Amino acid sequence: MIKFTYTYLLVFLLVFPTSAQFKKWSRYEKRWAIFHPFLALQLKGISKTCYHFYNAPSVRQQLDTFSNGGLLDAFRHTFFMAAFAQRFSIQKLRRLGEAHEKGNYQQFLKRQLEDGEMPDSIGSVMDLHNNELGFTIGKQ
User: Are 39 and 88 in contact (CB under 8 A)?
Assistant: First the structure.
């Protein structure tokens, strides 16, 4: 049991602190990654592929330019969670989504911006709804 825990910690310490994305994560997302390091590594790889498609000009032209609160934001949440749900447990992914939204709430309390805008409660509820839609699509 102890060796297994050290393996998790070693993977976490070797991979994530060097990542530029890791520094942007909330403490809730970091805590989730500590308890799911191998899953987090795999999600990191899938995210690269998803971002490549998401950042394509053709996708952005068909939707809108709002990275928060618009069609593009809804697409991002649904698309990423659908891609993740094809390979991983929905329960673990749901907890990751909730951790992300808890981090947004902390940013709101500290008056920090998320992607250039202030996070809000309606946006968090909608993001969680879009995540659930992504889970449904991903499992089908």
Answer: yes
